[in-house]
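Task 17 of the worksheet. Students: predict the tertiary structure of the chain below and write it out as structure tokens. Keep your answer in the requested format; marks are given for formatting as well as content.
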Amino acid sequence: MSDEATENTDLKPHGWRHSATWTYLVMLAASAAALVVSFILSADTLKLARNPGQQLGCDVNAVLSCSSVAQSWQAEIVKFGGLSYPNAFFGIAAESVFVTIAVIGLARVTVPRWFATCTWLGGLAALAYSYWLTSQSLFVIQALCPWCLALMFSTTIQFMALSHATAVVQELPARKNGAVRGLDTYYRLNYDLMVDVVWILALVAIIMVKDGPMIFR
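Model answer:
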């Protein structure tokens, strides 16, 4: 191996935090949490369908109100054949897929690059959809569902871990002629950890600035 190749290898992310075991384990934990929350939201949706107007256990006050969110049109944006389908049902399907992908990653099964790319794009779509729903709750519905917030944060962590695994374990985008990528430096120097912490704190800050005083009334 040439000195340049050896140097490039040394500049790649190393250590337990960049291993397939750790990145996919974090993804599995976040995806499993999101799956459980999706089941809870689905159960609440069915409960409201059977007993319209019933208060749910997570109806704390005027702002923290699962019922207000569940009864909004944003909670059932997919309509087909005259029927509307709750978002939580699709959450169960999507998170089941991400749990499976995390298990595949933990098993060190080699997947095609196109599959890894589609997986990351799927994670990005799930994150964008979750953020859209959260923005609707904050600024349009004017109510927050605690379970929906839990789903949003777990989806965020899921995407962080998926991105980490895609870049470091799956090595996408591919290196050109063995050159060190910017992503290698980003993860090797643990910049991602700093960005992830700021990301989570920013989400918390937005929620607290918008509805913080009302949440604790």
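Marker's comment: The CA atoms of residues 8 and 179 lie 7 Å apart. Residues 20-50 form the longest helix (31 residues).
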